[in-house]
Amino acid sequence: MTDELDRKIIHAVQIDGRASFRAIGQVIGASPQTVARRYARLRTTASLRVLGRTQPYALGDEEWFLRVRCTPDATERVARALARHEETVWVHSTSGSTEIVCTTRNPEGSEPLLLRNLPKTPRVISMTAHCLLHQYYGGPQNPVDKLRPLSPEQIAALTVPSLPPRPTALADTDRAILRVLYGDGRASNQELAAAAGCSQSTAQRRVAELRRPLLGRRLRPAGARTLAPGHAVGHGRAGPPRRGRAGARPARRGVLRGLHHRPHQPLRGHHLP
Fold first, then answer.
1. pLDDT band of 5, cuts 50, 70, 90
2. Please, where are the H alpha helices in 46-100?
3. Whole-prediction pTM
């Protein structure tokens, strides 16, 4: 069970996933030691995680929402194969044991590889695909935002200033840093520097620069049945995918949208019996 202080800490790291325990404590009126202890307990008992994820449009990526239907005996295996695929962001299976929904990310203007390969996958019955144009809720937002444990003044104190969106080119150092943040959004500057082969001051500066147009934070809620970072469940067989477009393109804010991603292996080559 979480209490009011726990919810304030969760809301705080939802606003700024890399805020120090001292900064969070100053805003919510608790000592850094108390915040650190509560955060550690939430990680253990509530599976709280802060993960890093890039803003797709800041990198010129498009997001696709896929719904895949397959035979009941193949749903889990197909979903796990999708979870390992490098294009998927989220993968979920729905009730009924025959449908998977997932979200993919691809360079803008290029057709997702999964759109070509999924219909050819054994045990896949059908698939629909829609390009996501506008996000009305989600991303950096979270159900915690609706509960509003923190006041508007506290939210403002923790909010990281952002710059107008602009195309962002990633250097090798940036990519190395992002790979670590994808697994742990609160990784220390020392860990980031070791992974990127640079000084701690450089790692700290690059994260600060990336967060403005590129980075954000995302919480992984307790009990979430995600097979991999991503947002979809899908698998099926049948003719070419039906595509649709709905909504409007999301506002381009920052490149780092949350901390969430994990390398995946291609679905191609995964054979179902």
1. very high
2. 75-84
3. 0.66
